[in-house]
Amino acid sequence: VALLRAAGDAVVRRAPVEAARWYRAATDLLPEHPTPGAGELWAALGGALGAAGDLGGARSALVRALDLLPADAMADRVALVSNCARIEHALGHHDAAHRRLTTALDRTGDGYPAESVSLMSAITLDHLYRLEYRVAVDWAQRACAAADRLGDPHLRAEAATSLALSAALAGAEPEAEAACTTAAALVDALPD
């Protein structure tokens, strides 16, 4: 399993179809009962399948990865939930994506503020897919406020970017311009 995973990791950036083949071979060798690292392997398979254009396969692999992740791996869980929701939107499963994101946000609670901000930004995009622009702006504003409280520059940039996009689509030009200026300054300040 480790050798096949390494083979997939070596080619995933330039040949995702080939990487997916290696990852699939590795998942076929996994025992029936969950083992450490199985969730990460399924997540890698989902990423490779998504990059290769197999969105249905990617969604299935990411759902399997979510099932295998420990409940306390909140950062990994939030990343997978967000990726899975993006794929569900691309597949036209907007209601499923919305439920997945809002359920994850409910489960993060106050103990995971950074993960909550990431989910709020993802929910902003979720509402954009659903053509609910004003609701998207509201979620982006919540994400910005929470990110500002945390002071994390990456989260602040992510939230400001989602506010700029949602405000622009909602026709709130002054708010979009201000958010875009803020996002640009935050991104410019980040290291390469």
Mind explaining what this structure looks like?
Helices cover 80% and strands 0% of the residues. Helix 1 (2-11) packs antiparallel against helix 2 and helix 6 (94-108) packs antiparallel against helix 7. The protein has helices spanning 2-11, 16-28, 38-52, 55-68, 74-90, 94-108, 113-129, 133-150, 153-170, 173-189. With 192 residues, it is mainly alpha-helical. It is built from ten helices and no strands. The model has no long low-confidence stretch (mean pLDDT 94).
Structure in a nutshell:
This protein has 192 residues and is mainly α. Helices cover 80% and strands 0% of the residues. It has helices at 2-11, 16-28, 38-52, 55-68, 74-90, 94-108, 113-129, 133-150, 153-170, 173-189.
Q: Could you outline the blueprint of secondary structure elements for this entry?
A:
Layout: H1 2-11, H2 16-28, H3 38-52, H4 55-68, H5 74-90, H6 94-108, H7 113-129, H8 133-150, H9 153-170, H10 173-189
Provide keyphrases for this structure.
0% strand, 192 residues
Order of secondary-structure elements = HHHHHHHHHH
Number of helices: 10
Main beta-sheet strand count, sense and barrel state: none
User: Helical residue percent?
Assistant: over 70%
Principal-axes shape call: elongated
What is the CA-based Rg, rounded? 18 Å
Classify the secondary structure makeup into a structural class.
mainly alpha
Mean pLDDT across every amino acid position: 94
For the record, give the distance between the C-alpha atoms at the N and C termini, rounded to a whole number.
34 Å
Q: Tally of extended strands?
A: 0
Indicate the proportion of strand residues: under 5%
Low-confidence stretches: none
